[in-house]
Design brief:
This protein is mainly alpha-helical and 272 residues long. Helices cover 56% and strands 7% of the residues. A 3-stranded antiparallel β-sheet has the order 1-3-2, covered by helices on one side.
Length: 272
């Protein structure tokens, strides 16, 4: 199937609630088809992510360019380093994140061996490496996850200084959707994160991952090269202006939510 026709076949499939993510997901799948990206992945879940119905339709459509698609159990990366968090509280954080993401992923690849399976998982193959992220960005993403866990614990500990670690973890798990502790955490770093993402959107509007500071500041050109490829791909399949508009719409949405102090609800970096 010709690339533009394949792109058109993906158009009805809403892989995320946000338009910018839907468009970038489409570009990622096309990049896999062109052999420029080793794999595409997103989460199968009713909220925010790819619904089970859309995932099933993706499985049907993907064969058009000889690709392989599989739905597998959630495959989490090991921690980049052990977070400075009591184990019982760390388990509560992991459970919350897994609940948010759902328990399944859909992977689209050219080579079935690129799909992670527990029986043949390589410890050095992170999700970012499988998705073709620049190593510098993958390392920054994994370290950011550790720092988020540490900050979430500190917020909870500051709020409930007299609770034991186990009692604190039970309190944290009270709301599986969004705990008070995580809400405080999100609001506490919202301005910092929004400023960073604004710089990312201005410099790299087409890449599917969140670039590391080295790429953003120009010390590394890894993300720059990817952005140029995705910009060209978007132009070839008629999505360039749509992506630019969707990025701007998301920026406006986030800015409006930040004025009210609400979490922006932006997409996870670990997709695509």
């Amino acid at each position: 199937m010709e690339l533009q026709a394949f792109a058109a076949s993906l158009e009805p499939l809403r892989t995320c609630q946000f338009e910018v993510a839907v468009l970038k997901d489409r570009l990622c799948i096309l990049a896999v088809a062109e052999g420029q990206k080793p794999a595409f992945m997103t989460y199968v879940a009713k909220e925010r992510h790819c619904s089970p119905e859309v995932a099933a339709r993706l499985l049907e459509v993907i064969g058009g360019l000889g690709l392989v698609a599989r739905i597998v159990a959630l495959n989490s990366d090991p921690w980049a380093r052990t977070p400075r968090v009591p184990p019982v509280f760390l388990a509560a954080i992991e459970k919350l994140w897994h609940t948010r993401l759902g328990h399944r992923q859909i992977w689209i690849v050219r080579d079935i061996l690129a799909i992670p399976r527990r029986v043949r998982r390589r410890p050095d193959a992170t999700t970012g490496a499988r998705l073709g992220y620049p190593p510098c960005c993958d390392a920054a993403d994994l370290e950011g996850k550790v720092q988020k866990a540490e900050r979430m614990y500190q917020v909870a500990r500051d709020r409930e200084p007299d609770k034991s670690d186990r009692a604190l973890a039970e309190w944290f798990r009270a709301d599986p959707e969004l705990t008070d502790a995580e809400m405080d955490f999100v609001q506490g770093i919202e301005a910092e994160r929004l400023h960073y993402m604004d710089q990312v959107d201005r410099r790299f509007p087409f890449v599917p991952h969140i670039p590391c500071p080295d790429c953003l500041q120009g010390s590394s050109d890894a993300t720059q090269r990817l952005d140029e490829y995705y910009r060209d791909l978007a132009a070839r399949v008629g999505l360039r202006e749509k992506v630019i508009q969707a990025v701007q719409d998301m920026a406006n949405h986030v800015a409006l939510r930040s004025l009210t102090g609400e979490p922006s609800g932006t997409i996870s970096s670990r997709r695509g």
